[in-house]
Structure to design on (113 residues):
């Protein structure tokens, strides 16, 4: 399973780092990614990191502001979010995009002054 943590209230322009800890499988063997679901909207991909070479791919407004880091030894993936905007407010989830696990409870990120 995958468990998200680190959600918080943050001011616009601020930064936040989310964590995703894996159990029951070897994190480095799979592509893993971050997803988010804003109120009233469908879940969307934020970005992913490949299993083979650690190449990252970001979607939409995450490009240039968010960064995915993966520490296989700690079985943990991180989402470093900078220059946060109110429209980044959402529940953030992690999962394996090519072999989905049951969705966790996510980490709530609220960007507001």
């Amino acid at each position: 399973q995958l468990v998200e943590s680190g959600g918080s209230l943050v001011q616009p322009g601020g930064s936040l780092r989310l964590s995703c800890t894996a159990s029951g499988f070897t994190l480095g063997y799979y592509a893993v990614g971050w997803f988010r679901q804003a109120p009233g909207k469908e879940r969307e991909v934020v970005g992913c990191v490949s299993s083979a070479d650690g190449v990252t791919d970001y979607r939409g407004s995450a490009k240039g502001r968010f960064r995915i880091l993966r520490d296989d030894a700690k079985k943990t993936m991180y989402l470093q979010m900078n220059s946060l905007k109110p429209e980044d407010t959402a529940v953030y989830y992690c999962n394996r995009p090519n072999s989905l696990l049951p969705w966790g409870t996510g980490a709530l990120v609220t960007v507001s002054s």
About this structure: The beta strands are 2-5, 9-10, 16-22, 32-37, 44-49, 56-58, 66-71, 76-81, 90-95, 107-111.
